[in-house]
Amino acid sequence: MLTPTEQSCLRQRRHQLGQQFEGKALLWSGVSPPRNFAANHFPFRASSHFLYFAGLPLQNAVIGLEAGQLTLFWDEPHPDAALWHGPSLSRAEMADRIGAETHLPLSAVPTGAQQAATVPALSSDTYQQQIEWLGRPIPPINTQGSQDQEANRDHQLAAAIIQLRLQQDEFALTQLQQAADITVSAHLQGMTSTLNHTSEAAVRADIESVMMAHQCPTAYASIVTVHGEVLHNDAYPHALASGDLLLVDAGAETPLGWAADVTRTWPVSGQFSAPQRDLYDLVLAAHDACIAAIRPGVEFRDLHLLAAQTIASGLVDIGILKGQPEVLVERDAHALFFPHGIGHLLGLDVHDMEDLGDLAGYGAGRRRCDRRGLRYLRLDRPLRPQMVVTIEPGFYQIPALLHNPDLRQQYRDCVDWDRLAHFEDVRGIRIEDDVLVTAEGCQVLTSALPTQRAEVEACVQGSTA
Fold it and tell me: Is 316 found in the same domain as 377?
């Protein structure tokens, strides 16, 4: 059930969309695809754009939005479905639950749909249905828009949705804090249980069991690995060995679809080695510097460059890099060890609205940069109050970069490869938190999860720092 506050927020979202976008919009929820035979489906996850205005993850539904009013298009399950899945709400009851002014069967969607705008679905089956019922091609959303009138209307709708979803309302913030709290508990469970386990998979099971106990799926494929140099490692075959660092990037998704995204790195033995301490503290310094700098009006790109500068300076102090930190960042030498962006938007999607490409992440007139140190920046906008972003600096020894002969030649004068060899027990370190931009600064939604090295060690050891 949605609370009165949540229903009020949903009505306000629809009203705001009606103010920013004239005309009719249709948004599809999607369906769960079969995994090997027709009756065996993957878990259903509704489209985030549908969820933002409907509030509930209703499968195989379409909502119509016009002038702040909501129409639900949905077919009630066949009576035989009750045998397998239990009783379900009627369409009228479901419409009342989400606050729809009108409700119609799904077959009514094509009537008048040719004048409606939409956001292209990711599922091929749903996308084909959109094309058929709207009676036109639906090109991908892009930053330039389109000369085609209908496609340009889709672009205008996407731009209006982005402006609403960039800043989170009360409903969203409550959900995001819930996801953050559950995620913190899950990570703490992983830390405190590590000494009892001998494999990545066993630690992952403990982490995800906390999420499952709260009826939350994972917001993305959990990363639980001693090979932290593999940035999106989603395999768990390795044993845990003394001296390993375990990098855990895992986040819960609430039943209504709101995500958390948190990373911690801890020593399997409960104690960092001396080289691991040096590099962990360096990553933490970048993490803390970026969070301290967050406030409305700050450019997210500048936060990324602050992290790059902090990491470059620290690597010079340690002796891995040689030269002036400012020059090293200009040359993107830091990107040998910190190749990704400092973070991204967070909301209904773990990388919020990235299905819309850079239209969401990049401000008007901004484009991706080809520079090695900036090309993977997912967000390039000034921060606004009620934005939620991740901050996630890291240090990695990625063979594809460090063993690349062209890169070794390009940076031969600024990397001390002999000194780097002393840090071979550090494959990857990342520290990531979820941060709300407030009117005067920021609030770390995941602050209850320790980042300080001594506290992390104490958690793994089962004691208090």
Answer: yes
